[in-house]
């Protein structure tokens, strides 16, 4: 499995890297601009990401905008919804508006509240078929 963790907070980044590391290769981006760059490069290299874990609130480009951009790139390249990267948005519990925006309007596969619960995240990824 190939994973892109997009998170501006160092501690959250390290936690996700530690949880996901045993399941595959984990790349890091610290904002939405880097995420879009890394995603585009993965397509150019024909080494696509299976999973993107992305924070909603970030500097430079937020997770909402990055998600919409990633989904637009996939559509431009003829990637069907069944072939899309699984995108799990991470957000604070008190942020229902952004969760709805990401999940229903942005094309997120799912979301996970912060602080990240390892068992809940792994259970979600198993249900999504990303890990066994």
Largest sheet: 5 strands, parallel
Q: Helical segment tally?
A: 5
Q: What characteristic shape results from the CA principal axes?
A: globular
What is the terminal separation in angstroms? 11 Å
In the predicted model, the low-confidence regions spanning at least 5 consecutive residues are: none
Radius of gyration: 13 Å
User: In sequence order, what are the helices and strands, one letter per element?
Assistant: EHEHEHEHEH
Spatial arrangement of strands, main beta sheet:
2-1-3-4-5
The total of beta strands comes to 5
* Helix residue percentage: 40-55%
Structural class: alpha/beta
Oligomer: single chain
In percent terms, what proportion of residues is strand? 15-25%
- Overall mean confidence score, pLDDT: 90
What would you say this structure looks like, in words?
The protein has helices spanning 10-20, 32-44, 63-76, 96-105, 118-127, and strands spanning 2-6, 25-29, 51-55, 86-92, 110-114. The longest helix has 14 residues, at 63-76. It is an alpha/beta fold and 132 residues long. The protein is globular. It is 44% helix and 20% strand.
């Amino acid at each position: 499995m190939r994973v892109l963790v997009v998170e501006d907070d160092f501690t959250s980044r390290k936690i996700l890297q530690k949880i996901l590391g045993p399941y595959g290769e984990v790349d890091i981006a610290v904002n939405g601009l880097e995420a879009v760059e890394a995603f585009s490069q993965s397509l150019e290299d024909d080494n696509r990401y299976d999973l993107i874990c992305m924070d909603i609130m970030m500097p430079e480009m937020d997770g909402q905008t990055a998600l919409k951009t990633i989904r637009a790139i996939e559509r431009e390249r003829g990637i069907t919804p069944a072939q899309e990267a699984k995108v799990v948005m991470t957000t604070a519990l008190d942020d229902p508006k952004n969760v709805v925006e990401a999940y229903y309007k942005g094309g997120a596969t799912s979301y996970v509240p912060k602080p990240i619960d390892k068992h809940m995240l792994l259970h979600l990824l198993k249900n999504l078929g990303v890990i066994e």
